[in-house]
Amino acid sequence: MTFERDWSTRQIATLIGSLSVMTLLPGAGWVAAVAQTAYPDVSDDLWAQPYIQQLSQADILAGYPDGTFRPLQPMARDEYAAVIRQAFDLDPEESLSQASVFQDVPQDYWANAAIEEAYEMGFMDTQSENEFNPRTPITRIEAIVALVDGLELSADPPATANVPAAAETEQPVRQARSAPSRLMFPLAATSVMQLFAPPQVTPAQAPAPAEPTAAQPTNAAAEPLLSDYYADAGQIPEAARDQVAIATQAGLIVNYPDQDMLNPNQPMTRASVAALMHQALVYQDKLEPLPADTDVSQYQVEPEATP
Q1: Alpha-carbon distances of 17 from 13, 59, 192, 229, 234, rounded to whole Å
Q2: pLDDT tens, position by position, 235-268
Q3: Scanning 160, 179, 252, 303, which has its CA 20 to 30 A from the CA of 202?
Q4: Total-model pTM
Q5: Cα dist. 97→120, 132, 168 in Å?
Q6: Cα angle vertex 301, ends 269, 209, to 5°?
């Protein structure tokens, strides 16, 4: 897929060279992107505004070429793969052979490289060996499972963890795949790649999302945890319950408008992706947490302190 990736980069540079803000893509030279910290459709009253603003100021997240962010728009699987690829730089767990290329992802598809890398790093899973369903909106539960699996978050502290220090801070011991900071490849490039995306799939047109798969076995211990946190815990697919429990204890979950409603099977909006990605980067110590007195804190699910 290397040839196609290089080809797509040249096309991006050619077609949007008139845009003024420049963003560096690793190994691809300079291409234009849309980067800004304020959007006409992201007001101070928008619940996710602090997440979006912080990610934008850090050159991690940006809007569309028309200057909008579209916070309520559902995010498709191809877009989420692009976000994953650009936010995290981890060693691949497996490699896609030429025989395993997804039949519904053409080699000249705008997100081809992002889908390949997100899959190889262990973030994005599929229901079919040969299909990725790139334009299917990703659900909240699928987005959460992707982060937990890809970052290899665990409910158990590593054997070498500094347990006393963790206890003093009353924070869960962190065990996650740690990668060198790679935020030189900001999510702003997502808006660039969107120039090549097919027309937006609205929720009414979108096919029903597939149930997420999980590599980890179901843990019965997750049951009381989930019901303690979420009034709709019964809607969480069985295969994803462990990952949701782990994400909850890691402080990744942000539920709007009701903190105790996960709404696991609803499409993930761009605003919700900003919140989830922000919390994941905070967890990895790549971003500062929002101040405790920020209004949005009422939507963040606070994990229980580790004994």
Answers
A1: 5, 19, 11, 48, 50
A2: 999 999 999 999 999 999 999 999 999 999 999 9
A3: 252
A4: 0.70
A5: 11, 15, 47
A6: 35
